[in-house]
Amino acid sequence: MNQNILVTGGTGYVGCVLTPKLLKLGYNVRVLDIMWFGEECTKQFEDHPDCELIQGDIRDETIVKRALAGIDTVIHLAAISNDPCSDLNPKLTQQVNYDAVKSLVRLSKNSGVRRFIGASSSSVYGIKSEPDVTEDLPLEPITLYAKLKAATEPIILTEKSADFVPVCIRSATVCGYSPRMRLDLTVNILTSHAVNKGLITVFGGQQKRPNIHIDDITDLYALLVEAPAEKIAGEVFNAGGDNYRVIEIAEMAREVVGGDVKIEIADVIDERSYHISSEKIKNVLGFIPKRTVRDAIADVKKAFENGLIPDYQNTRYYNIKRMRELYH
Ligand SMILES: NC(=O)c1ccc[n+]([C@@H]2O[C@H](COP(=O)([O-])OP(=O)(O)OC[C@H]3O[C@@H](n4cnc5c(N)ncnc54)[C@H](O)[C@@H]3O)[C@@H](O)[C@H]2O)c1
Questions:
Q1: Residue 316: how many CB atoms within 10 A of its CB?
Q2: Among residues of the chain, what percentage have pLDDT more than 70?
Q3: Which pLDDT tens digit goes with each residue over 3-41?
Q4: SS3 labels along 277-301
């Protein structure tokens, strides 16, 4: 059993659910994160005896070497993690989402890391007409964010060797509650609008968007830590749950939130539309998401009701607003 895991970006939206999960499973977890979104969510794990939190930049090789000491598995989440943030400062994005990944993989291998799990994105496919987008289809990334995700996959996967197991996950858009909440992700935005404004604005609405519940994607990362090397080494897997049109998600949010919620349709801004197939990961690892988009909507609604997301307009819930504060 691998004992020591480094989670880069471990204080982000996905990381704040994954890190406590790994600790609960009995791993020693080191988190390396620049902590752009504050320290609030780390309270739940920073005092854990098996957790070490390093505030630092993955572009800094000295810190990365320190963070990698004694590590068996790296789960690499740290990134400028959506399209508008990536476009805001392309130079920084290139450094964080590409250059730093290249050096992180090299340094991981040199340091004796045996497994490297990379968080890619289903946005690498771009707009596809195929009814089910499988991993073997050509990548047609549209945005800088997606292009760099596509470019880093081979950098990670070609390092495969007898004692280095690299794997990349093309995650659907994640949804549901995290102690480091993001309200800039499709299901979460629509739920927030329903709860806080009673009005859901849908841009277009006919686009299909694959989603995955945050508890499922974090279960998957945890599963990959122990998955048989021969099944995953050098592989890329789609990971998605429900595939709905955006308008269908809005209607679901209206129904789950209840009360008088209106839906208005505005001009389409983001035309990306795809339906990903997650058959490969099901066949190879038996991984099937257990939660639904409806569950995610209900979880986010409950989090608002319980005061866990105070002030829904706070910039820390929106990556682009936070990045503008930091870099402009
Ligand atoms: N959330 C999604 O819907 C989704 C979908 C597909 C893929 N992904 C990928 O999953 C990963 C996690 O996404 P998330 O939603 O948790 O994003 P997030 O923005 O909430 O978290 C990213 C974390 O990385 C940290 N970080 C950024 N630059 C850093 C640097 N230079 N050094 C150290 N830390 C740095 C940030 O402080 C943040 O805590 C990302 O790689 C993202 O691209 C996310």
A1: 18
A2: 98
A3: 899 999 999 999 999 999 999 999 999 999 999 987 778
A4: CCHHHHHHHCCCCCCCHHHHHHHHH
User: How many angstroms separate the CA atoms of 42 and 76, rounded?
Assistant: 17
pLDDT over 70 at 47, yes or no: yes
Check if the beta carbon of residue 197 is closer than 8 Å to that of residue 257.
no
Q: Are residues 130 and 206 in the same domain?
A: no
pLDDT at 44: 83
Let me know if residue 285 belongs to a domain: no
Cα–Cα separations (whole angstroms), residue 190 to 143, 219, 249, 256, 264:
23, 24, 8, 11, 11
Are 173 and 185 in contact, with CB atoms under 8 Å apart?
yes
β-strand partners of 211: 173
- Alpha carbon of 279 to ligand 1 centroid (Å): 25
- The CB of 33 under 6 Å from ligand 1? The reply is yes
Tokens read off for 135: 């991993």
**Is residue 68 domain-resident?**
yes
Q: Which residue has the tokens 């349709």?
A: 265
**How many Å apart are CA 174 and CA 14, to the nearest integer?**
8
Per-residue pLDDT band at 208 (split at 50, 70, 90): confident
From the CB of 118, is ligand 1 less than 6 Å away? no
Token pair belonging to 202: 């849908």
Model confidence, pTM: 0.97
- Ligand 1 atom at minimal distance to the Cα of residue 35: 37
pLDDT over 60 (residue 312): yes
Q: Does the CB atom of residue 15 touch ligand 1 within 6 A? A: yes
Which atom of ligand 1 sits closest to the CA of residue 59? 31
* Best mutation site among 77, 102, 182, 186 for ligand 1 pocket (most ligand atoms within 8 Å of CB): 77
Q: How many domains does the chain have?
A: 2
Of 218, 216, 229, whose CA–CA distance to 72 is shortest? 229
Range of the domain at 224: 4-174+211-239
Q: How far apart are CA 121 and CA 271, in angstroms?
A: 16
